[in-house]
Amino acid sequence: MMGWQALFYKEVLRFWKVSAQTIAAPVLTALLYMLIFGHLLEGRITVYDSVSYTAFLVPGLVMMSLLQNAFANSSSSMVQSKMMGNLVFILLTPLGPLSWFAAYVLAAVVRGLVVGLGVLLVTMWFAPLIFVAPLWILVFALLGAAMLGTLGLIAGLWADKFDQMSSFQNFLITPMTFLSGVFYSIHSLPPFWQQVSHLNPFFYMIDGFRYGFFGVSDVSPWLSLGLVGGAYVLVAALALQLLRSGYKIRG
Amino acid sequence: MTAISFQSVSKSFSNARGTFTALDGVSFDIQAGEFFGLLGPNGAGKTTLISILAGLMQASSGRIQVHGLDVQTQSAKVRKILGVVPQELVFDPFFTVREALRFQSGYFGITDNGVWLDELLECLGLADKANHNMRQLSGGMKRRVLVAQALVHKPPVIVLDEPTAGVDVELRQTLWQFIARLNREGHTVLLTTHYLEEAEALCSRIAMLKQGKVVALDNTSTLLKNASSNVLRFKLDEQLPTELAAQARITGRIVQFPAHDAAQIEHYLAAVRSAGLQAQDVEIRKADLEDVFLDVMGAAP
């Protein structure tokens, strides 16, 4: 076994041991959204002609939960280890920046996918769901989880305390996911807010993901893939640079 | 072979109030197989030096080599050689003792060291706690796990940063027996401690740090020889006259005078008597490392 695999396994086991909090809770939250919004808005809103509102909502909720939990995994693990001081156990090993990166991001991807799958399993019964292009679903799920896992790693390295971490989450990650078209198509927005939504990278992740289900989307999935992929390269480069320089972890 | 070589290591911290120099040109070598003691009062720079050695911090200038490898530029190789027991009592609350040791081994790419992990658990008195969660352990037990974690990869160079601070006598005995055995088997040991009798009993050579500088560096036996060889010790209910008190070390009722020979001892006793004071429980003992330590710390600039 390579060193990074041990760290990856440790990171997975860390959330698995408290799965009521890290998997069941977000699945329940998404189920509540589905019950309330699905019940209230079904029949009142038409997003795409061929797709019911409840069906439209399912992929949005899946992706939102996937993104938020991928972020939560790497960020909370890193902040907690820094605060508890047990990050020293990893700092004292020969593991290099790439190993850290791979372990933290992949564990976040696993958490994101597990939660996303859980949300899919409990919400798919509310609407007839089709999977037009499964490969797109998989590509955007993986890319989205990796993106948020990497952002979580950056945030975890940057934050010194839990409250800094939660402001990152509450004022950046949550608004950006909510305003990315989880609950609505941005075509239903006034033109100005449509333009603003196009600046939100989360919009492309959810839009591309949804394309995989219905074969319809606000923008081309190729455009989404290009933008999200390009953004990921930048974010990953930043995370690796922070790890390489020992930013806030090696004095 | 030189196990650890500190070469003009300096470290300063800057903040809004100015620059603080934690280490000021520290240089000394530790030979392979040595049991080496690093002593100094709080704030002398011991932990800073250890942190730079362990790659947790970067030196402002100078460098450190471990087995001839630079700790900065060849860090991955150096960390395989080093086993560091950190001073802070840290643990990962998610895992059991055995899980913590297995993961720590895994980080070094080691998976087949079950026999060694069992031996570590046995020798450190942790065998019956192996499947307990870290949170359930007492402070002393957590400290033992820290030691075990530092040793999972059988490091040739073991660094212990105040491993016995605030732990009970039993652990100290268990720990020192085990570390002494590893030292006999060829492991180099670098120890920082506040317990001078520990350093005296275990370390063959000692460096003393004060305000970031090495103020003494010698064999333990030579250090003891060079200090005042005897100490006159007695108890006193009254206050000593000022000029006598200046030469004594006073802890509550206990008064101690460093002395080189019998004439000096007689001189002090006579002075106490002529001051009209009654010395009780008078004894003369050999100077120990604590006396040397206080001498050096008092004299050094």
Could you give the topology of this structure?
The complex is a heterodimer of chains A (251) and B (301).
Chain A: H1 3-16, H2 19-41, H3 53-84, H4 88-91, H5 97-123, H6 134-158, H7 162-178, H8 191-198, H9 201-214, H10 221-245
Helix pairs in contact in A: 1-5, 2-3, 2-5, 3-5, 3-6, 3-7, 3-9, 5-6, 5-10, 6-9, 6-10, 9-10
Chain B: E1 2-15, E2 18-31, E3 35-39, H1 46-53, E4 61-66, E5 69-70, H2 75-81, E6 82-85, H3 97-107, H4 114-123, H5 139-151, E7 157-161, H6 169-184, E8 188-192, H7 196-202, E9 205-210, E10 213-219, H8 220-226, E11 230-235, H9 242-245, E12 249-251, E13 254-259, H10 262-274, E14 280-286, H11 289-299
Parallel strand pairs in B: 3-8, 3-9, 6-7, 7-8
Antiparallel strand pairs in B: 1-2, 1-4, 4-5, 9-10, 11-13, 11-14, 12-13
Helix pairs in contact in B: 3-5
Describe this structure in words.
The complex is a heterodimer of chains A (251) and B (301). Chain A has one domain (19-245). In chain A, 75% of the residues lie in helices and 0% in strands. Chain A has ten helices and no strands. In chain A, helix 2 runs antiparallel to helix 3 (53-84), helix 3 packs parallel to helix 6 (134-158) and helix 5 (97-123) crosses helix 6 (134-158). Chain A is globular. Chain A starts with a helix and ends in a 6-residue tail after the last helix. Chain B has 301 residues and is α/β, with parallel strands linked by helices. Chain B folds into two domains: 2-224, P-loop containing nucleotide triphosphate hydrolases (Rossmann fold); 228-299, Alpha-Beta Plaits. In chain B, 36% of the residues lie in helices and 30% in strands. In chain B, helix 3 packs parallel to helix 5. The two termini of chain B are 33 Å apart. The chains are: A mainly alpha (251), B alpha/beta (301). The interface between A and B is medium-sized, with 28 and 33 residues.
